[in-house]
Amino acid sequence: MKENTSFFASKTVGLAVLLTLLILGAAIRMHDLTDLPLDFHPTRQLLSALKARGIYYETLRNVSAEQKSFAIQQWKVRAAIEPEIIENIVAYTYRFTGEHLWIARIYSSLFWLIGGFFLFLLVRDLTSVDGALASTAVYLFLPFAVTASRSFQPDPLMVMLIIIFWWAVYQWSKNPASYSFAILAGIFGGFSIFVKLVAVFFVIGGGLGVLFRRLSLRDVLKQPQIYVMTFLGILPGAAYTIYGVFVAGYLGQQFGGRFIPSLFLSPSYYLGWLGMLNAVVGGAMLMFALLGLFFFVDEKRRFVTALWIGYFIFGLYFNYHISSHDYYSLPLIPIVALSIAPVAEIFLSQLAKLTTTRWLRFSALGLLSFGIFASLWNIRADMKSVDYRPEAQMWAEIGEKTSGHNLAGLTQDYGSRLAYWGWLSVTPWPTFGDLNYHNNMRGAKDDFEKQFEELTLKKDLFIVTDFVELGRQPLLKNRLSQYLIFAQNEKYVIYSLH
C-alpha cells in the first residue's frame, strides 16, 4: 500500500540513509572483533574453526609434524554436515593473515550486510523506499541478528543467498519471458541449498510465492524459464547429497534425529519454538510482522505469505532443532523484516505529513536515529560484558598438564575448546540434554555404570570444566568423587582414573 507522502522522499536522502545503516551495521559487527567465538553457539563455531585450521595446516611446511597431524586429524574426524565453503574461504585467507579466528567474523558480517542491501532492493519493489529502509534497519539491528551474523558457521552466507534468490526471482516475475533473472535466481537458489540443505524450504517458499503471484498452474507449466530455474536450483544440492550419502557415505547419519514425531504431542515443543521466536525476533516484532501481511496488496501478500509457510513447514520438519536451537530460525529475520515494511511505510508516511517544517522533520529523524543508537549501545554493552580471551590460556594450560595422557571429560562443547587451544583430544561425556535427547530417540534409559566404564576404558584422566552440567548429573558427580584429583583450580578439576 503506497502513500503519496514519503518521509525519505529524496533519492539522495534515501541513499544516504541506506549507506548509513550499512556502515552502522558493519561497525557494530566489528566491535570486540578479536574476542573468542564463544559468545554464540560455540560448539558449532568451533567445529568450523577446527576444520578451517586443519585445511590451513595441510598447506603449511614450517610447523611441527605433530601439530600438523593433529590439526588435519581434527578436521577429518569432525562431522561433515555441510560443504566446507566458509571454512575453505577462511583457511585461504589464513595464508596471508596468519591464523586469526576473527577473520571468519569479517566474512560472516559481510555476507549479512550484502543480504541487507538486496533485502532493501526487494522491499523497495514490494512497498517503497520508506518501507525498505525500515526493513533493512530491522534486519541489521535486531540484537539476535547482530550476534548470529558474526558467527563462524554457514548460516549468514545461506541467508544472504536466500535473500538474493528472493530478489532475483521477484525480478523475473515482472518479466517471465526473461531468461537472465531466471538463470540468476536458479544459481543463487541452488547455491543457497548447496551451502546448507535447509535453505530448500525458503527457496521453494519464495519460488512458489512468486509463481502463483500472477500465474495459474497451467501458465506456470508453460514457462520454459521455470524449468531452467528449477534445474539450476536442484543440481548443486542434489549432487552434494548424492555424493555425501551414496558415494562417500559421510552424510547419511546427518539426516537422522531431525524429526521426532512424539514431539508433536509434547507441550515443550510448542513452548520451546515460541521461546526461540522470542529470542530471535521478540514477541512485539513478530506481532507487527504478522499484522503486516494484511497491508500488502493481494499478489504481493501471496509472495510474503509463502515465505511464512515455508518457515512453518521447516519448523514442523526440524521439530527438535526449531524448539531448541535458536539459530535455526535465523532465516526468519529477513521474513520478519520484509513483513513489517508496509506497517513502517504507513507510519513514516503519516510522520511525513505531521513534520511539515524542516525543524520538525529533523527532530523526527533525530528520534528515529536515537532509537537505533540506543539499541546499538545495548548490543555493544552485551559484547563488552564478557571477555572470553582468558579461556585460551586456560585450555592451553590444561593441554600442557595432561599432555601424553588418554583423556575423557565433561567439558564445554564436547572437547572442542581443548582441541583448539589445548591441542588435545578428549572423549566427551554426554551432557544432560544429550542423554534426554537420546532417551527420546531410543525410548529407553542407558545404564550409567556400563556407560561410564565403556567411556573411561583405557583412559588415564577425566577432566571436568563444566561444573553446572556436573551438578545436573549426580550419578557422575558421585562416581568421580571416588577418584584422586590429578590437578585442579577454580576453573577445572582433573581426576586420575587409576
Describe the structure in your own words.
This protein has 498 residues and is mainly alpha-helical. It has helices spanning 11-30, 42-57, 65-77, 85-97, 102-126, 129-141, 143-148, 155-174, 180-195, 200-214, 217-221, 224-247, 267-280, 283-292, 298-317, 319-322, 332-339, 341-354, 358-385, 390-402, 416-421, 432-442, 448-456, 467-471, 474-480, and strands at 407-410, 427-428, 461-464, 484-488, 493-496. β4 and β5 form a beta hairpin. The longest helix is centred in the C-terminal third of the chain and has 28 residues, at 358-385. The protein is globular, with a radius of gyration of 25 Å. The relative contact order is 0.10.
What attributes does this structure have?
five-stranded mixed β-sheet; 5 strands; mainly alpha
Topology:
Elements lengths: L10 H20 L11 H16 L7 H13 L7 H13 L4 H25 L2 H13 L1 H6 L6 H20 L5 H16 L4 H15 L2 H5 L2 H24 L19 H14 L2 H10 L5 H20 L1 H4 L9 H8 L1 H14 L3 H28 L4 H13 L4 E4 L5 H6 L5 E2 L3 H11 L5 H9 L4 E4 L2 H5 L2 H7 L3 E5 L4 E4 L2
Parallel strand pairs: 1-2, 1-3
Antiparallel strand pairs: 3-5, 4-5
Helix pairs in contact: 1-5, 1-6, 2-3, 2-4, 5-6, 5-8, 6-17, 6-18, 8-9, 8-10, 9-12, 10-15, 14-17, 15-17
Short note summarizing the structure:
With 498 residues, the chain is mostly helical.
Question: What's the pLDDT, averaged over the residues?
Answer: 91
Strand content: under 5%
Radius of gyration of CA atoms, rounded to a whole number: 25 Å
Physical arrangement of strands within the biggest beta sheet: 2-1-3-5-4
Largest sheet: 5 strands, mixed
**Gap from first CA to last CA:** 74 Å
Structural class: mainly alpha
The number of helices is 25
Shape: globular
String of helices and strands:
HHHHHHHHHHHHHHHHHHHHEHEHHEHHEE
Q: Which spans have pLDDT < 50 for at least 5 consecutive residues? A: none
Helix content: 55-70%
